[in-house]
Design a protein that fits this description.
mainly alpha
């Protein structure tokens, strides 16, 4: 009697065990390689977000405006004085003026880059979710879906990996040249003041 009871118990367990096995098999991702690739892209986008946050748009904009304003003032002053610049002065003024270009590129593209990161984050999150749960929309190929996201993420990363260091170097150059620029503007102001107020003739 006891043996029959045990056998009956095992018979009851068999459907449950089979069901659990089927669920386990069906719930496992069917495309683990593509899922790993999608998760890797999500990690890249977290890096992209961190890169963009290393430079505050407003601070870069302030530096750009200062460089453009100082450069315009210096150019106007030189033209008024009809000054001839020595090579050293001409070189550092040219280097200083060129900083504004890369700073301006960052400022004008910051919002676009941020939007691209946010958009790609959403699409890669959704792709990862669908691959993990085997719920990719009918007709979509897992490999092609991952490759499409990869192309966009790599393009974004290449742009950031060029732009962020370039802007960082531009800001460092601005800091190093600022004392020279300040001194030159003071000298230029003194020359302009002397030109406008020549004093009594001897």
């Amino acid at each position: 009697m006891k043996s029959n009871t045990l056998n009956f118990g095992w018979l009851l367990l068999i459907p449950i065990l089979v069901s659990a096995w089927n669920y386990s098999c069906n719930s496992a991702p069917k495309n683990p390689k593509e899922l790993a690739a999608a998760d890797s892209l999500r990690a890249d986008l977290r890096i992209a977000d961190s890169l963009l946050k290393t430079l505050e748009k407003e601070k870069v904009k302030q530096a750009e405006d200062a460089v453009r304003g100082n450069s315009a003032f210096i150019e106007d002053g030189i033209n008024k004085l009809q000054d001839t610049l020595d090579l050293e002065t001409a070189t550092f003024l040219t280097e200083y003026r060129s900083i504004a270009k890369i700073l301006g590129i960052y400022v004008s593209n910051h919002d676009r880059l941020k939007g691209a990161i946010d958009s790609l984050k959403t699409s890669c999150d959704n792709l990862s979710h669908d691959l993990r749960n085997n719920s990719l929309a009918e007709g979509l190929d897992p490999v092609k879906s991952v490759n499409n996201e990869r192309v966009q993420v790599h393009k974004l990363m290449n742009e950031l990996n060029f732009l962020i260091p370039a802007v960082g170097n531009g800001l460092k150059t601005n800091d190093s040249l600022s004392p020279k620029i300040k001194a030159y503007i003071e000298e230029l102001n003194a020359k302009l003041a002397a030109r406008n107020n020549p004093g009594p003739a001897k």
